[in-house]
Amino acid sequence: MMNFARLGLLKLCLGIAYLAVASAAGSTGSTGAAWAATISKDDQYPFYEPDLVQYVASKGSFPVVVVANPFGAGKDGALLAGLELPSYYPPTPFIATTPQNRDDGHIVLVFAPITAANGYDTCRTPASQTITGQKGDTTNKTLRLQAAFCYDDEVVSEAFMEMPKPKGPHDQRLTLAIDQFLDILLPSQSPNIGTCSAGGGNC
User: pLDDT tens-digit profile of 51-110?
Assistant: First the structure.
């Protein structure tokens, strides 16, 4: 069990937010073409606090577990190299880790998540949450991505993203979409601060 009191965390209620990100494919020579990423966030996890993100970043790197990378085995480093924490956090490189070696705060990225994917199971057993290679896998057309910010095996925040499948891990459209994705997953403020009931029952 994580010690949120030790980290000075508040119990918070997270709202539902949706963000559509469109990026014109100007660098590819296409005209009038746009790729849209739809991003959503779940509000089931009451412990999100930006100070926890700062705490993880203060260690000098931010561990990420990548599950079912659609760009191929061994490409996790290439995928993470182009990503950054939102600009309101200190510049901190993402580094690939494994479910066995993860510790403390980290992010889990699950490509082609199963229909019933949820942050609780993603943080506990990341590899169980992908449909890659199974019946119903549509990763050849659409990139679907679930992200969970975890502390040990507990979920802190979660988001889902869907977009037309990019060409590779260095595709600028993917980088832009995941940048926006991380803004949703790791906001600079606790989304519903001040909205708790007088008795604290909603927090």
Answer: 999 999 999 999 999 999 999 988 999 999 999 999 999 999 999 999 999 989 999 999
Edge-to-edge strands of the sheet including 105-111?
Answer: 18-24, 34-41, 154-164, 142-151, 105-111, 62-67, 94-97
**Separation between Cα atoms, residue 108 and residue 99, nearest integer Å:** 9
**Cα gap 24→107, rounded to integer Å:** 28
Contact yes or no for 146/129 (Cβ under 8 A): yes
List helix spans (H) across the chain: 50-57, 76-81, 119-124, 172-185
Can you tell me which residue has the tokens 């880790």? 97
Residue in the structure block whose two tokens are 């014109």: 24
Give the integer Cα–Cα distance in Å for 135 and 145: 17
